[in-house]
Structure prediction request, 568 residues.
Amino acid sequence: MRTSQLYAPTLREVPAEAEVISHKLMLRAGMIRKAAGGLYTYLPLAWRTIKKIEQIIREEMDAAGGQEIAMPIVQPSELWKETGRWEVYGDEMFRLNDRHGREFCLGPTHEEMVTSIVRDEVRSYKQLPLLLYQIQNKYRDEIRPRFGLMRGREFIMKDLYSFDKDEEGMRISYKKMYDAYTNIFTRCGLKFRPVEADNGAIGGGGSHEFTVLADAGESTIAYCEKCDYAASDEKAELKTIHSETEALLPLEKVATPGTKTIALVADYLKVPVEKTIKAVAYQTEKDEVVLAFVRGDHEVNEVKVLNAVDAIALRMADEAAIRAVGGEPGFMSPIGIKKGTKIVVDATVMEMQNAVAGANEVDAHYINVTPKRDFGEPIVADLRLVQEGDPCPHCGAPLKMTRGIEAGQVFMLGTKYSKALGATFLDESGKEKPLVMGCYGIGVGRTMAAAIEQNNDKDGVIWPKSIAPFEVVVVPVNAKVPEQLALAESIYEELKKAGVDVLLDDRKERAGVKFKDCDLIGYPLRVTVGPKAVEEGTVELRVRKSGETFVETKDNYLAKVQELLAVL
Ligand code: ATP
Ligand code: MG
Prediction:
């Protein structure tokens, strides 16, 4: 490929709409263009990288026993109604009607579709395990599409679904995918961590997110430096903190004027925040009120609350709903709440003694609260959000926190979808059983964006070699000089013959302009053909990542290119 024929409209200015570096650089490097919020065109450079990532994914999926298929993007609502997700998916689902008024959606994911295919054809355990995957556009009407390809409304995903005869089989398939994902992100040249993750609405057993470490990421992960524990902040388990034993004092209501927040009440009563109990009120998708309680210095982890009460979605409760169950916003505790209301209390709170909690009245609190004695029989669970320094649940060392980008996720689904859709098989003894499933996704565009977030400098992108749009760019310093251009052409041809993915920057632009573009686009290696090439027979090789340069003769430059590429 020659730059003169390449459609890569680079920009000098940083586009105002872009917040994160990958989005800015993809726009500036002429890789993508926006059509509407969360909808992008991939121009040739981006598409080359996408194809390379897809190829790596394909090779690893095939090596793990996956078979590639292509399912329709447009899916009938009937399937989604069978699992109940037609309602659950809510506004994130793009819905449409055909000319006969039948309802469809643009696939946000394909559990229903793939299970429906398998239920009609798989009959016997002899056909298992079965691993089917596709690489295809997905559609999610995200509330806040942003960060370019990182959170789009149309995005490319690889999704694989595994079908096994039992849980053990599912775990083997899961492990194969886990290992394949490790290979994929390693081959893409990324620094990442597999982290224990919450299952979310998708349901089922265990799950891991493959998180690319980058400050721009929307995920927060807690990890241990001493052992290999790592988990998303939504998932990170926390041990119960046991309080010192005290002599229990009788419960007492006290006036606490104007103390709507924990800080104010702690200050007013002159107690440490660790001695107070904080409340957060939610409502479920069925409008049921859920009151959650954690220690005053802790934060509530909404995902843990969701799991504890087995709801699908939570939102902040409105004041009227809180009052309807006997609560008073800003002064809440489980004491005096209407019977039958869902109350969830963090396990650490249940260990507290002589603490402060709301009295469900304006400007009043209880002191000497001892939850085990005073809170009745609430749901007790680990509800708190992990904080830096919390002890690792495996080894006790203080946890660290970092930000990352979820590039892929693997789930053990179990029989949730096969049961709902009636996907069964006959086992060795002829008994009918539901298929045991797993599902495994990778965001291809998000992986590309994550690679840029992790690999850039002030001049532009620094592609890992395996996913660079081109590995090497050959630049004649002055393409108007026929000898230079001819020499550059012959080097370009020679590199192509040697199997190098190479681009010739044959534009008759100033050298400075071309070098700037090369750095912006981020080709891993540049071969510069200047006057010295013509006069002395030497070319210059420059490594984008380190800035190192090497002067080589025309006879041995190829070996050096290969040597450098081998380690990039
Ligand atoms: P998130 O929590 O970031 O919304 P998710 O957990 O809903 O993502 P999955 O259903 O696990 O996403 O999808 C598999 C993969 O698809 C994700 O790991 C991610 O790489 C990618 N992905 C999901 N949503 C988007 C999106 N809106 N834009 C680009 N990639 C996405
Ligand atoms: Mg996910």
Summary: The first helix runs from residue 21 to 28. The CA atoms of residues 408 and 432 lie 33 Å apart.
